[in-house]
Amino acid sequence: xxxxxxxxxxxxxxxxxxxxxxxxxxxxxxxxxxxxxxxxxxxxxxxxxxxxxxxxxxxxxxxxxxxxxxxxxxxxxxxxxxxxxxxxxxxxxxxxxxxxxxxxxxxxxxxxxxxxxxxxxxxxxxxxxxxxxxxxxxxxxxxxxxxxxxxxxxxxxxxxxxxxxxxxxxxxxxxxxxxxxxxxxxxxxxxxxxxxxxxxxxxxxxxxxxxxxxxxxxxxxxxxxxxxxxxxxxxxxxxxxxxxxxxxxxxxxxxxxxxxxxxx
Length: 264
Fold this sequence. Notes:
Belongs to the short-chain dehydrogenases/reductases (SDR) family. It comes from Vigna angularis var. angularis. This protein has helices spanning 19-30, 42-51, 67-81, 105-132, 155-175, 193-199, 203-213, 223-234, 258-263, and strands spanning 10-14, 34-39, 57-61, 86-89, 138-142, 181-187, 245-248. Helix 1 crosses helix 8 and helix 3 packs parallel to helix 4 (105-132). By secondary structure, the chain is an alpha/beta fold.
């Protein structure tokens, strides 16, 4: 398959300095896109941008909780690259793992501010450009298997990812009239920096936990698998797909995972 599936397109990837976001940046660039990496991890973001040795990749500090920074990042992108075809709204945090009986509402508010309000802000300002310039763009948001089932993550994170899925479906309904597609990609657990930091586990421990509860045997989910799914949703290969939650979980949310083990 040709590695120019995004030739001539311009993308913003929030949370693009590490993990899924960084893999998406690499894959988007390999496929011909110009990319703005938006993150608060300045050293890592600048390092990733300069590693490509190309003017086609830039870094921009952006805390998605701050709408002004989001708006400025979108304006920077359009000024530098003259367009905005793709938004991958990927920035997020896992939030604490605790009983609902001990819920810290300040932590809850922060998780909502990043995972939901931040996604709404990025969609708002990216879509404004797409509508004004009549760009038939693609907006992709990182949700989670926690947007489909409860009990697979902390309460704050689960609520926030249900919110992301609601935003995707609502935005799909509005922006379809402009030819703009809005979708989400929902990963199963993987050893990303976000997951490792939230659990205070190493990658090997996360991988072991993933295998212990996974449905699809013989494969370890990695960040590049999610980035490849985002590439599909960003490319013209998904031209008539909108409002879809592309779940990348090896069937975890589709089956009763305990039944096959009983049958064995």
